[in-house]
Amino acid sequence: MRLVTDKGRWALNDNSMIFSKVVWLVDESDVNMYHVIDDNGKEVYRPNQTDIIHP
């Protein structure tokens, strides 16, 4: 399962870790740990269960 974005980068909710445009999930509930941020670290989007791409 993964989350994909083209509008910024994925980060943990507290921005302590910033990732690329794809984040792999172990469990569907992990979607609540991430959000998309812009280059300034401001939140652009908060994902939900419908954003998960299943293999």
In short:
The protein has 55 residues and is mainly β. It is built from no helices and five strands. A three-stranded antiparallel β-sheet has the order 2-4-5, with no helix packed on it. A two-stranded antiparallel sheet has the order 1-3.
Notes on the protein architecture:
The chain has 55 residues and is mostly beta strands. The chain contains no helices and 5 strands. The strands form 2 sheets. The protein has a 3-stranded antiparallel beta sheet with strand order 2-4-5, with no helix packed on it. A two-stranded antiparallel sheet has the order 1-3. The protein is globular, with a radius of gyration of 10 Å. The mean pLDDT is 97.
Helix content: under 10%
Alpha carbon gap, first and last residue = 6 Å
Low-confidence stretches: none
What is the number of helices? 0
How much is the radius of gyration in Å? Answer: 10 Å
Extended strand count: 5
Assembly context of the chains: single chain
Strand order of the largest sheet: 2-4-5
Please tell me what the overall shape is: globular
Would you tell me the overall average pLDDT? Answer: 97
Order of helices and strands: EEEEE
